[in-house]
Task: structure prediction
Amino acid sequence: MSMSSSLQAVLTGVVSGKIWWDAPLSAWTTFRVGGPADALVTLLDSGELQAVLDLCHREHIAWKILGRGSNILASDDGFRGIVMVLGDGFKKIDVHNEIDAQLCEVCAGGGTGLARLADWCAGQGLSGMEFAAGIPGTVGGAVAMNAGAWGREMADVVVSIELTDRERVRELGGETLSFGYRRCDNLAGETNGSVVSAAVLRLKKESVEQIRCTMQSLLQKRRERQPLSLASGGSVFRNPEGDSAGRLIDAAGLKGFRVGGAEVSDKHANFIVNCGGASAEDIRSLIVHIQHQVRMHSGVELMPEVEFI
Result:
């Protein structure tokens, strides 16, 4: 094992959930690639999260929060540190505040699956999260990257977030909460040691039937336009302002281009799919090739949306 026995003992002492030693990240990421992390732990509550964050700080151990593993490219060499997964204590959904006859606020834990949250909101007759139907992520990750689809994004509904670090749990909202394209500004710089442990969303009350109809329509579009039958990390590149990364990649003639087991999807050019046996290096090399070819063809520098670990 890569982690010393003394550190293993300390980690075991502060975590009551499951611990996997030398855990292959290929089993935890939607690309289905990645070498072993020294340890992968499931944290059951904020106390355990703070204890592990404090251990990492004291022992200078690298750490990473992992949601459902989408938008992540984990190295073939693995991750020298602790990967944390938010467990049951971070998956609660509750009505936070009934504002009036039209608006309601909902609090969702950072480990809550986006698709589950969208379905729960639909069942309550609360509209605003329909865009998240089918997105394989969690609330925490979606806030951190301001996830979006179909012209909507988390910034449209999030009114406050709960941030947990090794010393405190605090809430950010109002003018202090700032989002940009595929980012939450509050999770950069001095707050990069924080974890989104919950978020409060403001939603509109509508009929259950209308909300579910919209979700079914968006799910159908997703099935028609995205390569859901193959392993992928989701959209690989951010859309340049006023344009589409998929259109630029397609215009460069790259649909179907392959490096090893990694291929530019024939269905949607901004998806790289694992056709079987792809390595992280195959995918990384394909990303670099796409950037080069699009730069040569259109002069646009594509920026990855995928996070490299």
